[in-house]
Amino acid sequence: MAEPYLRVEKLVKRFGPFTALGGVDLEVYPGEVHALLGDNGAGKSTLIKTLAGVHEPTEGQIYIEGKPVQFRSPRDASAAGIGTVYQDLALNQLMSVTRNFFMGRELKKSFGQLDLDKMNQIAHDEMLKIGIDFSDPTQAVGTMSGGQRQTLAIARAIHFGAKVLILDEPTSALGQKQQMGVLKTIKRVRKRGDIAIIFITHNEIHSRLVGDRFSFLALGKVIGAGTSDEISDKEMRRLMSGGAEMGDLEQELAAI
Amino acid sequence: MADLSEADRLAQETWLQRTIRRPEIGSFIVMVVIVVVLTWASSGKAFNALGLKNNVQIIAQYGIIAIGAALLMIAGEFDLSIGSMIGFAGMSMAIMLKWGLPFGLGEATPLTALLITMAMTLTLGWIIGNIVVKSGLSSFIVTLAFLFFMRGVTEVSFRLINQSTQVSGLPDYKEESWVAWVFGGEVFGWFYDAWFWIGMRFVDMGFERTDQWFTLGGNINRRGTQWVEGFDARFLWFILIALAAYFILSRTQLGNWIYATGDNKEAARANGVPTNKVKIGLFMFTAFCATIFAACQVFENNTSDAAKGNLMELFAIAIAVVGGTLMTGGFGSVLGVVFGAITVGLVANAVFFIPAIDGAWFRVFLGAILLAAVFANERIRKRITGGI
Ligand SMILES: Nc1ncnc2c1ncn2[C@@H]1O[C@H](COP(=O)(O)OP(=O)(O)O)[C@@H](O)[C@H]1O
Ligand SMILES: [Mg+2]
């Protein structure tokens, strides 16, 4: 097995007296989808915010390609190849696809003049690579569907050098058909082989469809991890419900 | 590819549909209607040689400050201090020209008066911008404070230094100072020369000078009394500011940052756009526009008074909105604002060409199209954002 691109060791994050992450281990490999599952409040967002440089870890260490790293800001993390696509996607609805794609990192000719032809071309090509053929990149993002916006945000992260793509619940706010579109996009990115994907979800079906490796988080701890072969559907359901046996839950419910 | 058809749903527009969907189309149509109605109602007088000059004067005045206000609104902020900034800048230049430079630095020239004033107004713009971005307060309230503050400072300064709220009888600097001439002189004289030349050819062809052509603007029948040499220099400033703003907004990185800042500030910041710097810079730009406005006034008439620029901030914002700028930021176009300035300027002046109407109708009209524009802009926003 190749070396993980990103490795996290005994990561602890405390907010004052509250321990949001209590010693998390995680490995993500290029060309793999690592599904991160867990109930609301389990600590998934806190974990990725620490990876993205938003929070500094209280204890523990992050390694990129085996080398220990410290992120002081989101800029540091993105320079190290960590591209985060947050739930709100950081897109501007009134602006065109191209202008959003290059927001803050515009291509310039002389006098700060935008190289719009080249920008349109790149935005179009990068989105085509992962699945949508957007014939008019001058169209406003507000006119795009939720799934297309996800694709735009993902294409943007990849174009600007993401080696680890972190997707925070990319399917949760979408309709059925668009959820499938996003899963397809994830598969296409995976197929490139050079990008590691962390896919956060609490939908076990979605994680099963695209995941190569799974980590289950509950109350700030990893309560189970393994590859898709190692984890059975039954085991998955048990871990998804925070480690409780389904039978126990049925009994509890029946007792009410 | 299942997504293909969905992505292309919006792409199948003809050139005509695209033009009709442009955000400037509303203000363009209103402008054309006004031009036609005004031409007809004034029997062409609104666009004869002198009429055109007068109309361009007010259009350029409105346009200069409306473009500053519009850029700032696109970035998501307001500036209610524009009018007071005009008064302050005019006072500052006129007092320096009359009473000399501050701190006993001697006589002022138009250049030094302008530079020192510009330095002060840009600093004020910088201060306003910093207060807004650092405090997180609404720019509406911060600039409202500066509206009162600076109008008061202007009046007090006039009384203390000048003993009167008016400076008049300054020498005509245009004769010897190119700076004064650049702001207060006349430009595009060739336009009227060409007009005259064409008129003469008609005379050669046997037309009478009293023919309709000449009342319409042959610029020839009035020779000796109201001969027009050119447009006010502010017309050139309006054109320069409009071109620069158009280029920056639609073609540069800074333009992308202005839109991004006004649309969704957090998203812009997450992508590395320096939103605070953008806003501060634009508060300085409105101060710059106000100072240009004031310089043109001072050097054209060689006077200034404490009431100059009164209410101009509201006209600037109204014209920006009539031109299609969204009150909520993130959207607008310089071309639309130019159409808006032409429309509002023509109606403001209409009373001079159609003496039968009451001048107060101008405000009735402005209120009505402002309201119509707000609704139209909101529809455009909903269309773009898919109704959210
Ligand atoms: N900045 C913060 N300060 C204090 N507590 C926080 C902060 N961020 C998250 N938490 C807490 O950490 C826990 C994990 O939250 P989060 O990582 O958002 O969970 P998830 O994304 O898995 O639903 C929650 O109990 C939440 O209240
Ligand atoms: Mg979360």
What features would you describe in this structure?
The complex is a heterodimer of chains A (256) and B (388). In chain A, the strands form 2 sheets. A 6-stranded mixed beta sheet of chain A has the order 6-7-8-3-9-10, with helices on both faces. In chain A, a hairpin with a 2-residue loop joins strand 4 and strand 5. Chain A is an alpha/beta fold and 256 residues long. Chain A has a single domain (6-255), classed as Rossmann fold (3-Layer(aba) Sandwich), CATH 3.40.50.300. Chain A has helices spanning 44-51, 74-79, 97-101, 116-129, 146-159, 176-192, 204-210, 233-240, 246-255, and strands at 6-15, 18-28, 33-38, 59-64, 67-69, 82-85, 164-168, 196-201, 213-218, 221-227. Chain B has 388 residues and is an all-alpha fold. Chain B has one domain (68-188, 230-384). Chain B has 17 helices and 4 strands. Chain B is globular. Classes of the chains: A alpha/beta (256), B mainly alpha (388). The A-B interface holds A 74-75, 86, 88-95, 99, 102-106, 108, 111-114, 116, 131-136, 139-140, 142-145, 147-148, 151, 181 and B 1-4, 6-8, 10-11, 251-257, 259-260, 263-264, 266-268, 270-273, 326, 330-331, 381, 384-386, 388. The structure holds adenosine-5'-diphosphate and magnesium ion. Adenosine-5'-diphosphate is lined by residues 15, 18, 20, 38, 40-46 of chain A. Magnesium ion (MG) is lined by residues 44-45 of chain A.
